[in-house]
Design brief:
Length: 479
């Protein structure tokens, strides 16, 4: 490509990234953490008994106990199996959920406010869902734009593909790191951008396709992608979950059970749908359907459906890395950190070129590193206070921004130390609060990495602080 094209791509890349840097960072950072949303759910209630398997009789007993405790009308009933990725048995309706033990006895209610806040931050930026989904999806499209313009603007892709200069010029090292992360992980980042865009734009796509091919009939489009519900007329009765689950040993013996749903609960159209993971397929699940009496009706047909249907049904797993167990999640976490680092290094490169405007530089550090302390303190308050964690998080972010603007000493090193100290405080109080449960695998699987981050952050902040001016603005060679 000619020089003017590369220059135009570079300008587009820079200005899109700068103007939306804070939103892009929050979406990427929260999404990286949300890869472990199931682990965060376990972490929030570490004392729940865990199991690897359960049987049909236990599930039905737990559901019967739940319905007896909550007889209020509901559209759906759910049972989440221990093979779903969280080694716990959960029964719930549309509003409340309970854990159950290996004998089918109900335990405490499911309370995961921090996990819900974190996932909501990634999916909607904590905005009303209809608007938040559109905004986040637009940011997904902009991520794709940044990837393409970044590659186009790169002057020597093949020559510099593995160049990472770590000499005295730290700014050059940061530019190299930004370019290497952007190039090496571009396929993954495109997948994240495209799938993220899809979630918000699916409604618009639905309307367009309906107008073009089905005279505006949206239901006709939905039925081509998602298998319609079976048409049933039965006596209203208690769903025979045990009979339905027992048949899965014959119907799909190699498919781990994810969860089951009782649709149209307590109506003549009621039916049972069991969701199973399909080995060797990227689709979220294949769904097995049964009537109220537990008689097998057939599958939803996703595993053997048209490739386009399978692709749509694979979007969730592609976006969140929900495959290959913990190794897949670790891979997505590392690649997500690279995407988040692109947001951070891109903004810091721009700030360096503008000679680090003091107020803007401090404000950026309060967003990039202050968000860590805001999340840690939000989780900490969530242990004790029944408050809106969404509101609390944004209040803390606002306080960070005000403090960084008001005090000239609020440097990058200070925010790093605050981030590490906040995480250390969270883990310490968490362990004291939960007692022996704080040393279960459900707790340690996150607390140990959090402690490692706290140690790194404090060490990095201390080291960085020695290379900053008294006003908190980095020196020329500051990394």
């Amino acid at each position: 490509m000619d020089k003017s094209t590369k220059q135009s791509a570079l300008h587009a890349h820079a200005w899109v990234g700068v103007f939306l840097s804070a939103l892009l960072f929050l979406v990427c950072f929260s999404g990286t953490l949300a890869v472990f949303h199931q682990e965060f759910e376990r972490w929030e209630q570490p004392g729940i008994p865990e199991m690897n398997t359960t049987d049909a009789a236990t599930v039905e007993k737990a559901m019967n106990a739940f319905v007896e405790k909550h007889p209020e009308p509901t559209d759906h009933l759910f049972a989440v199996f221990p093979t779903s990725g969280i080694p716990r048995l959960v029964v719930e309706n549309d509003t409340v959920a309970y854990f159950a033990d290996s004998n089918g006895n109900l335990l405490e209610t499911e309370q995961v406010p921090f996990t819900k806040m974190l996932v909501d931050l990634h999916l909607y930026l904590n905005l009303p869902h209809s608007w938040g989904m559109i905004l986040v999806s637009a940011l997904g499209a902009l991520i794709c734009t940044l990837i393409v313009t970044g590659i186009v603007a790169h002057k020597r892709i093949s020559k510099d593909a593995f160049k990472l200069r770590r000499g005295e010029n730290a700014q050059q090292y940061q530019i190299d790191l930004h370019n290497r992360f952007g190039l090496w992980a571009a396929p993954f980042h495109l997948i994240i951008g495209v799938t993220g865009t899809y979630f918000g734009m699916a409604g618009l796509i639905l309307v367009v396709v309906a107008q073009l091919y089905h005279d505006g009939d949206r239901d006709a489009v939905v039925e081509k992608i998602f298998t319609p519900d079976p048409v049933l007329e039965q006596e209203v009765a208690q769903p025979q979950l045990q009979k339905a689950i027992a048949q899965m040993n014959t119907l799909a013996p190699q498919h781990p059970l994810l969860f089951l749903t009782v649709h149209e609960a307590n109506t003549p159209q009621q039916f049972i749908e069991i969701y199973t993971q399909v080995p060797g397929k990227m689709i979220y699940s294949e769904n097995y359907r049964f009537d109220t009496a537990g008689n097998y009706l057939g599958t939803a047909g996703y595993a053997q459906g048209h490739w386009g249907k399978q692709l749509v049904y694979a979007m969730y797993r592609l976006h969140f890395g929900n495959f290959a167990g913990i190794p897949g999640k670790v891979l997505y976490f590392v690649l997500g950190i690279m995407l988040t680092a692109l947001c951070v290094t891109g903004m810091e490169i721009w700030l360096a070129k503008k000679a680090h405007p003091p107020v803007l530089t401090r404000a950026w550090y309060s967003v990039a590193w202050g968000s860590v302390s805001a999340l840690a303190l939000t989780a900490l308050f969530g242990l004790f206070a029944d408050v809106s964690l969404i509101m609390l998080f944004w209040v803390l972010m606002l306080v960070n921004l005000v403090l960084s603007s008001a005090f000239s000493q609020s440097s990058k090193s200070l925010w790093l130390i605050i981030a590490g100290s906040s995480v250390l405080l969270l883990v310490s109080v968490y362990t004291l609060y939960h007692g022996a449960a704080g040393f279960t695998p459900a707790a340690l699987q996150l607390n140990l990495p959090l402690l490692a981050f706290a140690a790194w952050s404090v060490r990095k902040g201390t080291k960085t602080g020695s290379r900053q001016t008294p006003g908190g603005v980095p020196l020329v060679n500051q990394s």
